[in-house]
Design brief:
The protein has two domains: 162 residues, 2-Layer Sandwich (Ribosomal Protein S5, domain 2); 127 residues, GHMP kinase, C-terminal domain (Alpha-Beta Plaits), CATH 3.30.70.890. A hairpin with a 5-residue loop joins strand 1 and strand 2. The longest helix has 16 residues. It is built from ten helices and twelve strands. By secondary structure, it is of the alpha+beta class. The structure holds cytidine-5'-monophosphate.
Length: 305
């Protein structure tokens, strides 16, 4: 059996509409996912026992000490789940090369889980009809099915019920990473707390028509104006310094800016690839980010390389 390597993209949420808290502890969402060209790689190598190792991709400033290498690792959980489904031993070493920030709101852990699912399915020559991989993915985490699918898609329910959205051309992004991660459950809990403290009546979120139209026509300016994230006030409450980063991007001419998912990575939309390069250089110069990276989207989901 030869090793199998899979490349998996990060995501940014173009709209994250958060509905009321459900009985199962999750929130119903309208979650517009957009896969961007910042990739982790997962290599599945036959081994005597399940194991995971991780390293940073060249030039990526990743907090590797925060990547769990035990049973909490989502990629390892994905491999075990697939092995159980296939009735095989989960004897695989997963070698992860990370460029997606850890606990950064760009679904890096979910990307690694999706990568592990696809790599192990190929390694073990899983005779699974493809639709069952997304089903397994949803058991691992709400964002894992999208990491398999890629592109741009709206996710309902926990975010796992996906419908691809039509887009034109490419959108050019700048991402500012931050020191230290944010815990997704903590950000959702803060969102609930803020809403309750403000006496907010939480209604069911709806997909933004302006956003859907901007994606279909490839209109970056309209997309920038339509970006929204209901978790942003909570992320800013937990990490007030992000406001300075968002302000800096806006002042430097980003078409739109927002916290990516539950943060603390912030995302800035540019007009063109050249504009993104200028914006990235200027933002790096302000010193408000740990690292500034450029990426474009949409890109395909998990792919064997
Ligand atoms: O599904 P996943 O394990 O990635 O979710 C992590 C946490 O994020 C959940 O335990 C929950 O606190 C929160 N979450 C939520 N509603 C969603 C997705 C995630 O409240 N739709």
């Amino acid at each position: 059996m030869n090793p199998v390597t899979v490349r998996v993209p990060a995501k940014v949420n173009l709209q994250l509409g958060v509905g009321p808290l459900r009985d199962d502890g999750y929130h119903d969402l309208v979650n517009v996912f957009h896969a961007v060209s910042l990739f982790d790689e997962v290599t599945a190598v036959p081994a005597d026992a399940p194991k995971v190792t991780a390293e940073a991709a060249p030039d990526a400033r990743i907090a590797m000490e925060s990547v769990p290498l035990d049973g909490d690792n989502l990629a390892l959980r994905a491999a075990r789940l697939l092995a159980a489904k296939l009735g095989v031993e989960p004897n695989v070493e997963l070698r992860i090369r990370k460029a997606i920030p850890v606990a950064g709101g760009m679904a890096g852990g979910s990307a690694d889980a999706a990568g592990a699912l696809l790599a192990c399915a190929r390694l073990w020559k899983a005779d699974l009809a493809l639709p069952s991989l997304p089903e397994l993915a949803a058991k691992i985490g709400s964002d894992v099915p999208f990491a398999l699918l890629g592109g741009t898609a709206v996710g309902l329910g926990r975010g796992e019920r996906l419908t691809p959205l039509e887009t034109s051309g490419s959108f050019h992004w700048v991402f500012a990473t931050a020191d230290g991660g944010l815990s997704t459950p903590a950000v959702y809990a803060e969102c609930d707390r803020l809403r309750e403290a403000q006496g907010q009546q939480v209604s069911w979120p709806r997909a933004s028509e302006e956003l859907v139209k901007a994606l279909a026509s490839g209109d970056a300016r309209a997309l920038g104006a339509a970006l929204s994230n209901d978790l942003q006030p909570a992320a800013l409450m937990l990490r007030p310094s992000l406001r300075r980063t968002l302000d800096a991007g806006r002042e430097l001419g980003a078409l739109g800016s927002l916290v990516s998912g539950s943060g603390p990575t912030t995302a800035f939309l540019a007009e063109s690839a050249d504009h993104a390069a200028d914006l990235a250089a200027a933002l790096a110069g302000t010193g408000v980010a740990k690292q500034v990276v450029r990426a474009s989207g949409p890109v395909p989901g998990a792919t064997v390389v």
